[in-house]
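Box 4.2: Ligand-aware structure prediction
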Amino acid sequence: MANIRENLEIIQQRIEGAKNRAGRQHDHIQIIAVTKQVSVERTKEVLNAGLIHLGENRPEGLLAKKESIQDQAAWHYIGTLQSKKVKKVINEIDYLHSLDRMSLAEEIEKRAIKPVKCFVQANVSGEESKHGLSKEEVIPFIQSLEKFSKIQVVGLMTMAPNTENEEIIRKVFRDLKELQQEVMKLNLPYAPCQELSMGMSNDYEIAIEEGATFIRIGTALVG
Ligand SMILES: *Cc1c(COP(=O)(O)O)cnc(C)c1O
């Protein structure tokens, strides 16, 4: 297994390259280390390398890691969240990246003890295998969240299709950015929507060129 610090150094160089190409030298891009497939020990190495944002996609994995990791960390839930699991995790996380339906919002409202920073997940590419709201559904959905006191829409999240075609990937990220601008224009106090969670191991440079503020990296970092 490759050394995490070495992987991180390569990733950081590529991030800088993408920022420069996009004229984003002064923007801060948060790396979320996606640790869903690795052990507690490997996750501790991530923290020792200086990263603090960790991404998990199953309640069990998240809770097990939280229990054995005392270091300061920010916990991101990046997977589909079943409503019946909300109670278990919602007060254990710092960000939810997969808000995609009203029933989930209702359950969060019921279970959260303080406002939760949420990304609304959009399925921009329209692939059937992907979770998330269609482009057309995103704005009406966000408007309908006004009645909830425990939901704060900090941004939008998407996953690009699994393809070698860079232009297709780029278009998905560009569309998400456009959608984010539309949400920001609404000036909703509960939905500042300043963040864009997009880009994974294979496409984070494109995502940064198109405006990502959080990238979610698993295999390229810990694989
Ligand atoms: C697993 C996962 C990632 C990380 O994917 P890699 O290709 O390993 O970087 C990012 N986002 C989500 C939602 C994931 O499930």
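In the box above, the bound molecule is pyridoxal-5'-phosphate. The CA atoms of residues 83 and 194 lie 26 Å apart.
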